[in-house]
């Protein structure tokens, strides 16, 4: 992990990054995609301060002419949704190998579909932190979701 980038995070999020990375790493081993293996972790925090981690792996199905792509971060967010805690999401960590056609500047990027999904779903996008980590180089990027859509 690139600890310099992580210092941008509020302390209460920083405290969970190691656990988030462990969860994303464990989910990533189940990813089903030929060129990209992604694991994600979603951190929720309730009004009373209780936290929970949800994990997701990416999956690509090609049943016919149209592939179905399920990004790891969306899978993790939908797991939170299924627990009734989607609105409590405060951080999303994405662990992935690079894809030259999608990523640039040596940094893993969230895809447009996920940005749309979270933009529609998040009631408070300015409080959600996005952490992306390149699984090969450990290059880390930290940003607020609201900066991603600005
Ligand atoms: Zn995506």
Characterise this structure.
A 5-stranded mixed sheet has the order 2-1-5-6-7. The chain is built from 5 helices and 7 strands. The protein has a single domain (3-148), classed as Cytidine Deaminase, domain 2, CATH 3.40.140. The longest helix has 18 residues, at 11-28. Helices cover 31% and strands 27% of the residues. The chain has helices spanning 3-6, 11-28, 72-82, 112-121, 145-148, and strands at 38-45, 51-57, 59-61, 68-70, 89-96, 129-134, 140-144. It is of the alpha+beta class and 150 residues long. The structure holds zinc ion (ZN). Residues 71, 110-111, 113-114 line the site of zinc ion.
**Reported CATH architecture:** 3-Layer(aba) Sandwich
CATH topology: Cytidine Deaminase, domain 2
Instruction: Compute the number of helices.
Output: 5
- Pattern of helices and strands: HHEEEEHEHEEH
Q: Give the averaged pLDDT, no decimals.
A: 89
Summary of the model, kept short:
By secondary structure, the chain is α+β, with helices and mostly antiparallel strands.
Which terms summarize this structure?
Cytidine Deaminase, domain 2; 150 residues; five-stranded mixed β-sheet; 27% strand; binds zinc ion; two-stranded antiparallel ribbon; alpha+beta
